[in-house]
Design goal:
This protein is mostly helical. The chain has one domain. It has 2 helices and no strands. The longest helix has 38 residues.
Length: 79
């Protein structure tokens, strides 16, 4: 029963992480296409750099959740 709760929790974390990644990716696309209002070119580049850093951080977190899920599933399958 504990494993099922653990899997359910990881599934929720993974879904939220995926949504977060996708929204950051969409923002990055909008910024790079110039659809996000900025007064100057330097501002756009700074915003794009920040968004790329945010995406990398969220991507790394997403991978950690996937590793946790893999480990949990491995334990369940061994039972």
């Amino acid at each position: 029963m504990q494993r099922l709760e653990e899997l359910t929790d990881l599934k929720c974390k993974l879904e939220w992480s995926h949504r977060d990644l996708m929204s950051t990716l969409e923002l990055e696309k909008k910024i790079s296409k110039g659809h996000v209002i900025q007064k100057d070119r330097e501002g756009i580049e700074q915003q794009l750099e920040k968004t790329e850093d945010d995406f990398q951080m969220k991507y790394d977190r997403h991978l950690e959740i996937l590793k946790e899920l893999h480990n949990c599933l491995t334990k369940v399958l061994k039972l």
